[in-house]
Amino acid sequence: MASSHRRIRSTILHRTPVSTLPVISQEVITADYHPTLLTGFIPTDSDDSDCADFSPSGVIYSTDKLVLHDSLKDIRDSLLKTQYKDLVTLEDEEKMNINDILKRWYTLSGSSVWIPGMKAHLVVSRVMYLGTNGRSDPLVSFVRVRLFDPDFNELKDVALKFSDKPDGTVTFPYILPVDIPREESRWLGPEDAKIAVNPETPDDPIVIFNMQNSVNRAMYGFYPFRPENKQVLFSIKDEEPRKKEKNWTPFFVPGSPTTVNFVYDLQKLTILKCSIITGICEKEFVSGDDEQNHGIGIFRGGSNLVPFPTSFTDKDVWVGFPKTHMESCGCSGHIYRPYLMVLVRKGDFYYRAFVSTPLDFGIEVRSWESAESTSCQTAKNVLAVNSISNWDLLDDGLDKDYMTITLSEADVVNSVLRVRGIAKFVDNLTMDDGSTTLSTSNKIDECVTTGSKQYCQRYGELH
User: Fold this and answer.
1) 15-21, long-range: CB within 8 Å, 24+ apart, which pairs?
2) Alpha carbon distances (Å) from 339 to 108, 271, 300, 321
3) 406-452, pLDDT tens digit by residue?
4) Is 318 exposed, middle or buried (0-12, 13-18, 19+ CB in 10 A)?
5) Quick one: which H or E segment has residue 59?
6) Are residues 216 and 242 in contact, defined by beta-carbon separation less than 8 angstroms?
């Protein structure tokens, strides 16, 4: 810059857009989309049915991935200017060069949501400072917040004023000011950060993460654009907290602007309804006997759930990408892949109307051990969808839907890609089986588990 002073572009939430481009830009429309076969399973009334008897299939289309690069040096420099600066420096670093210091830093798990009032994608990611520890045991973690235009060009040095208070302005990119508790002489910080937004309050996103406190590893929400009461601790009413809470999948029910819902258990479908003010959660729906012991199985949390882009008269429909965790299958000790799930609510009843087999969108997944390899012959092989940033229709046609998803590979590469064709596929599903039972859900789980094993065996043969 010609001046020694940094120029700050200014915008105000709800009023002045950062960009005049719509979320579906011309670049999104004209991108190259590649076909992907989508197969999966719908509810059935018979446990004796063969999996192929209730397995619809179709084709969806996706672009190549766009990697969202970030600068570890910029991340470190920004943290050294915050209240966290003493947490991210060790004495031995005084004699180290910057390249060696940066080997102690990682950024991963990017999650995004489209903010209409800003006409921009808001992306959060986890930042880890390892110190002298290994990658699986960082000294402390943070949440980094970045801003992107509709085509995912980063918008830097943009100031956002959301209140008239002294701390009512943020400049992107920045570190989320989470209140991090100190536990056993260590600061652990937020992990697995995801971002979501209620369509009825579309400019007020919530960042959801798990974090260790004095009691357990608990789930938290953080509202970055609220002038006060930003951070909320979630807890389930009348229940002792589990030692470790994580993988809660957020979604929003129409007509409920003061609550957020979570899929608490994907194996034994359990839905929580939580106050965004108090953080108190109630179990709104439990599939089967609430006291029944049910294993974790292969299903894990992944992206947020977003509503179908047009409304149904008799039900609410959401779509998301949880992930499967397959052990000792194919080529790796642990393989993680996203799958498409359609969640339906009819009255007070929730059920999974469709669960797909694993997806990889044609991506050659990066090796866990090397950026130069796509070998799967490693301890882990990880591809996960972290978020659905937007899902919109062009000209109100279901055959012209555009979805933006963020992914992570090997827990180090953050990327984004566009997907088309999911709306038409979901609309063609039979979603009227309101009599779905736990046994039916178990049949879906059985078939998806079989399909997942077949996938990882095939993938292993090729990698």
Assistant:
1) 15/117, 17/117, 17/118, 17/119, 17/120, 18/118, 18/119, 18/120, 18/147, 18/149, 18/155, 18/158, 19/119, 19/120, 19/149, 19/150, 19/155, 20/119, 21/119, 21/149, 21/150, 21/151
2) 20, 19, 10, 5
3) 999 988 889 999 999 999 999 998 776 545 444 456 778 888 888 88
4) buried
5) strand 57-62
6) yes
Q: Report DSSP state, residue 64.
A: P
Positions in the chain whose pLDDT score sits under 70: 1-21, 45-48, 184-187, 288-297, 396, 432-441
Q: Give the separation between CA 277 and CA 86, rounded to whole angstroms.
A: 32
**Residue 75 in 3-state DSSP?**
helix
The pLDDT of residue 433: 53
Nearest alpha-carbon partner for 17 in 207, 158, 167, 219: 158
- Going from the C-alpha of 434 to that of each of 3, 315, 346, 351, 430, the distances in angstroms are 65, 10, 7, 8, 11
Kindly tell me the sign of the dihedral angle through the C-alpha atoms of 84, 86, 89, 95. positive
Closest C-alpha among 172, 170, 174, 152 to residue 161: 170
- How many CB atoms neighbour CB 89 within 10 A? 15
CB 367 within 8 A of CB 382: no
**Is there a contact between 447 and 40 (Cβ–Cβ < 8 Å)?**
no
Is residue 250 exposed (0-12), middle (13-18) or buried (19+ Cβ within 10 Å)? buried
- How many other C-beta atoms lie within 10 A of the C-beta of residue 147? 24
210-258 residue pLDDT tens: 999 988 899 999 999 988 889 999 999 999 888 999 999 999 999 999 9
Q: What is the pTM of this model?
A: 0.90
- The amino acid that residue 218 corresponds to is A
Single-letter amino acid code for the residue at 22: P
Name the one residue in this structure whose structure tokens are 């996938």.
Answer: 455
**What's the CA gap between 60 and 33, in Å, rounded?**
9
- 3-state secondary structure (DSSP) of residue 459: helix
* Structure letter (DSSP) for residue 18: S
Helix, strand, coil: what percent of the chain each, to 5? Answer: 15, 40, 50
Q: How far apart are the first and last CA of the chain?
A: 47
Element (H, E) at 378: none
DSSP 366: P
Q: Is the peptide bond before 199 cis (omega within 30 degrees of 0)?
A: no
